[in-house]
Structure formats: C-alpha cells, structure tokens
Design goal:
The protein is an alpha/beta fold. The chain has one domain: Rossmann fold (3-Layer(aba) Sandwich). 43% of the residues lie in helices and 14% in strands. The protein has 7 helices and 7 strands, in the order H-E-H-E-H-E-E-H-E-H-E-H-E-H. A 7-stranded parallel sheet has the order 4-3-2-1-5-6-7, sandwiched between helices. Helix 1 runs parallel beside helix 4, helix 2 packs parallel to helix 3 and helix 2 crosses helix 7. The C terminus is likely disordered.
C-alpha cells in the first residue's frame, strides 16, 4: 500500500516549481503583449458552429475592429474565438490567441498571428484585460460568463478603467439582465443602481460598432507614461 505520509519537503519543492511556472506564464504573456496597442477582446462559446449567425457576426465585428486598427484578442480556440481571430486575419490585422491547456475542446485555431498558451486560467485572465480597451461578449457558457462578470467586477471596483462592455444578442442576454435588475439590484440591493449600465446590449454588427463609440488605439501598456503608474510599480529609469 502506498505511503500517503505528508512530506513537507516534497510539498515545498512542488510549490516552488509551481510558483516559477506561474511567473514564467506571466512573463511570456507580458512580453508578447508589451508592443500591442489597446485591443478589443471577443468572448463567446467555443461550441458555436461556423454557419451560425453569431459566428458570422463575430467575424464581421472583428474585421471592422481590425480595420480601425485594433488588435483582436480571443481565447484562441474554436467557435466564437475562431470567428474573432478569423475576422482580424482577413483584415490583415493583429490576431491574438491566448490559449489554455484543456483535456478537451481547446486547440489553437488557424487564424492566430500572435499566440501564448497558458496552463493557469488566472494568468490567462489577467492577460485578457491587460492590453484591452473594450470587450465584446457573444453568447456563451460558463467560461463566457466568468470573463464577463470578472470584467464588470474590475470596472465596478475601479481596479481597471471603465471600458465598453458590449453584449451581443438581446434575446440571449435579456433574461439575465432582467434578473440582475429585479433580483440583484431591486430586491436584494446586492448591486448598486447604475451598475447594469456598465453593459450595453446590441442586436446587430452596426449597433456593436456604434457602442464602441470613439474608442481609439493607444500606446502599448509597456510604454505608458509613468504618471499613469499610480501604484508605483515601475521605478523611474536612471
């Protein structure tokens, strides 16, 4: 019978190597994104088929964003992620795939021009927003909801700057928005009045592009003025 005695040294060794792996993934992500201007991230289901209207809409939205000069960031997989990368690729834009190692469903799509693969979801999620100026959320499942609500939480708590958060497909999203309004806000006051307004729901490609407003590409985050470094993370270069 295997000895299940806890070995503190083995645990410490595993934790140390895990820490270095996490640091390595952060370093790879930051390095790749360091020269990327402000991007548009597109989230949505990996299970959406290429002949679905949502896939076709995501291709067109991505293409138009890329034509305006925005890099496109997706999770790098199939479905809506593939559609987002495809539109950027067809417009000769920067098409970024932040892939994740999964036992199923996830494999880099052929429309990616810049790719990083992550083992840890939390590292990947940081990278999704580090160089992003707007997110477009197509219909999707648990992963899509996770990405949406994390973004909304960070905006609501002022951990990141306010950005356009565009939900595509009124029929898909309206039930959720109604529940957030009636149950979360009005019945329980678990969110504040106006929090739902952080999201804009649209029903066409034209409405989506209008919701992005006057969003402009900005310099890479690695080249930001030190005056923007409120936390003092980057010491002056001497």
């Amino acid at each position: 019978m295997a000895d299940k005695t806890c070995n503190p040294q083995q645990i410490n060794n595993r934790n140390a190597w895990r820490m270095f792996r996490v640091m390595g993934e952060f370093a790879a992500g930051f390095q790749m994104l360091s020269t990327i201007p402000s991007a548009v991230a597109i989230f949505g289901s990996a299970r959406t088929k290429p002949d679905h209207p949502h896939y076709e809409a995501a291709v067109e939205i991505s293409r138009r964003c890329a034509e305006r000069g925005f890099p496109i960031i997706t999770g790098g997989g199939p479905g809506i992620m593939e559609a987002g990368n495809k539109g950027a690729h067809e417009a000769d834009g920067t098409s970024i795939g932040l892939c994740i190692e999964l036992p199923f469903e996830q494999r880099g799509n052929p429309y990616i021009t810049h790719n990083v693969t992550f083992h840890y979801f939390f590292v990947r999620k940081v990278m999704f927003l580090k160089a992003t100026g707007a997110i477009i959320v197509m219909p999707g499942g648990f992963g899509t909801m996770d990405e949406l609500f994390e973004t909304i939480t960070l905006v609501q708590t002022n951990k990141i700057k306010q950005m356009p958060v565009v939900l595509y497909g009124k029929k898909y999203w309206q039930g959720l928005l109604d529940w957030l309004k009636s149950t979360m806000e009005e019945e329980h006051a678990y969110i504040s009045p106006g929090d739902i307004d952080l999201m804009t729901v649209v029903d066409s490609v034209d409405e989506c592009m209008e919701a992005l407003g006057d969003l402009e590409t900005t310099c890479p985050f690695g080249l930001l003025d030190l005056e923007d470094d409120e936390e003092g993370l980057f010491p002056p270069v001497t």
